[in-house]
Amino acid sequence: MLGDVLVLELKLAQQRHTRVSGIPGRFGVAEDSAVTIGSPSVTRVIIKSRFNGPPDSGNGGYVCGIVAGAIEGPSIATLRSPPPLERALVLGTQDNGQAVLRDGETVIGEAIAQNLELDLPEPPSFEEAVEASKLFPGYEAHAFPTCFVCGPGRPDNDGMSIFPGWIPERALVAAPWTPGSSMPNDYKRIRDEIVWAALDCTSYFPHYDSIAVLGRLHSKLVRDTRVGERYVAIGWKIGGEGRKLWSGSAVFDENGDVCAMGSATWITLKTKQQDFRVA
Fold first, then answer.
1. How many C-beta atoms lie closer than 10 Å to residue 179's C-beta?
2. DSSP letters of 53-64?
3. In this structure, how many other beta carbons lie within 10 angstroms of the beta carbon of residue 9?
């Protein structure tokens, strides 16, 4: 039934020139994107199963990027509930400018515009990131090995293959990233929600010793990322309190210019939560 709904929505979207979420001002429907249907203030969204983090829910950064795509500029996105996959959700904007993603009466996520100023570490070179990635701890043990962004258990050319490893002398993790044509893109411009996803997982691995899920991501996209170009993603610790862990992340181009930056809040899971399934 859901497959029939998705096919119908794709046809309707093509007829209406529906906006693809995360691409303000651009229109069309791509096979590998969240589908949005409706008016500029209320749309229906389906998070496809490809874009999972934990096995049964959407990657947190990707979903934050979908919600933030309903507003302009840098923003803070907060996840309130695990984002379900392959289910029709509703994304709306309120009078105060806040975007809210709902599953029926359940709030999945919220976003509000807010500028971000972040002190960024000096980025390593692409070659240094390649070497760091060889030490990716997720090769040995990974809480969510099929994560769209950082899961080593994904088929080739299906996930983002961002595998951050420590550079101890810099007190950060780093990974190379060369997005291929399988990444959702618009004329080779990587979609914003994919860049949000890169910021998400890269910010987790400074806290690798904790099993945690993304609670909030404050991001600023500075310049486009493009298919086939080489980037470096980095993450570093900022601090923590109780079950909250704070970290920063950024994506740089091969010249060392920043493309995107983020400040993340991670929530450590209690033992009984660590299977993290969506009801």
1. 23
2. SSTTBB-HHHHH
3. 20
